[in-house]
Amino acid sequence: GSELVSPADLLRACELWERLGLPLSLQTLGGVPTVCAARFSAEDMERQLVDMVESLGDGAQGLSAEDAAVVLACPPAVTLE
C-alpha cells in the first residue's frame, strides 16, 4: 500500500530540520514557506543585491531577476522577493 504525506505533516517535519542539525531551514519569503539552505540569509542576499546594483554605474540598464539569480545562485523567484 501507499500512504500520503499531508501538507501539515510535511510542514512539521520541515520545522524540525534546524533542531536536528540538518543543512536546511524553513523560512518565509513573501509570505510563502520556503525551503532554504541553513546558511541562507535574506539580509545577506539583500545586501549583495544592493552592492550589485550600486556597482552597475550610471548608464546601466538595471539588474534583472535572472541576472541576480545567477550571481546569488538561487531561483529567480527568490530574487524577486
Characterization of the model:
The chain has 81 residues and is an alpha+beta fold. 44% of the residues lie in helices and 15% in strands. A two-stranded antiparallel ribbon has the order 1-2.
Number of helices: 4
- Spatial separation of the terminal alpha carbons: 41 Å
Main sheet overview? 2 strands, antiparallel
Strand content: 5-15%
The chain-level mean pLDDT equals 83
Helix content: 40-55%
Radius of gyration from CA coordinates: 17 Å
Shape descriptor: elongated
**Main sheet: which strands, in order across?**
1-2
Unreliable sequence segments: none
- The helix/strand order is HEEHHH
What's the β-strand tally? 2
Q: Provide the structure class.
A: alpha+beta
Short description:
The chain is 44% helix and 15% strand.
SSE blueprint:
Blueprint: H1 7-16, E1 24-29, E2 32-37, H2 42-54, H3 65-72, H4 76-80
Antiparallel strand pairs: 1-2
